[in-house]
Amino acid sequence: MSIKIIQERLNQYSFQNQLQEENALKEIAQEIALSALSRAGFFKVAAFQGGTCLRILYGLNRFSEDLDFALQKPSSNFRWETYLKNMKAELEAYGFQFQVVERDKSGAVKSVFLKENSIGNLLLLSHRNQSSRLIKIKLEIDTDPPKGAKIEQKYINFPITVPVISHDLASLFAGKSHALLCRPYIKGRDWFDFVWYVSRKTPINFELLSHALNQLGPWKEKRVRVDNRWYAEELSKKIKNTNWNQQKKDVERFLRPEDLDLLNQWRAGFFLDRLMTLIPTFQVRVSVHLKNGKTRSYIEGEPFYYEKDQALQVGKKAFSKTKNVAMVEVFQSGIARPIGFFQ
Fold this sequence. Notes:
The structure is a single chain. The protein is α+β, with helices and mostly antiparallel strands. The protein has 3 domains: about 1-165, JHP933, nucleotidyltransferase-like core domain (Nuclear Transport Factor 2, Chain: A); about 170-280, no CATH class; about 280-340, no CATH class. The protein is built from 11 helices and 11 strands. The strands form 3 sheets. Strands 1-2-5-4-3 form a 5-stranded mixed beta sheet. Helix 3 runs antiparallel to helix 5, helix 5 (about 170-180) runs parallel beside helix 7 and helix 8 packs antiparallel against helix 10.
């Protein structure tokens, strides 16, 4: 009966090749592992985060590899062993025979690696003969997470409905932003997720990002306080220095066939546009009368401002001090009509 449940779940996916089928099978195992962790009380102390969290709980349209978590409160006493027995028992009940193959106990981030290669013998698979079926899942938890994360309760509905505590979307976006800003080798899937967040107008938990930057990466212990300006300036540097062909290759294997064409627009200009959509900027345009009866326009002050009130204040000041002024307009990026004007 349990194998039948797995087979029915697998049949709900649409895949065209072996890799996509393996991704689906791995995701099914991930959901069962989450269910086991929930029933074992894991989410009383921990919160789900990362790409798989975004995929399973929030509907991200790509597959993800690992199960990432963070303790709700820092503790050096956390041990995966407390939950592994329950997790393995739950997976075995559905036909998965996972073995612990490696554990990383050093440092604040503690990892467990599980592998399984027998479930394929029990299922009707579309690509059975192409290679052995190896499912590998990495579970990783940050036992000393940065401050500032906000959590919320969500539910997964497979194999049964159970509650899962996760970081909220703004905090997840902060975590993704930390990866984009600090990871030595940025993954294409990070940029894919960035576009997903922006398309949903997700705010960034700047408090969490500030603490994360201070804890790990090139800004460690520099007490950076992230705001719109800082974020836009630093991420634009990353965008301009990224090899977009490499990023496409990284993320392709995690996408559904119908989503691959989304990568055609990946270039610096596209991501700079997404960044400006996320962090709106404002320009002050001054028009003055010329002696020949015509008008001339120019940008007042900085090329753009990150705060609306600041731009309006600059516009007001420009109107009062400029000789022969005809009009002062304040524009927001992405909006054709002015959001404020003085005449």
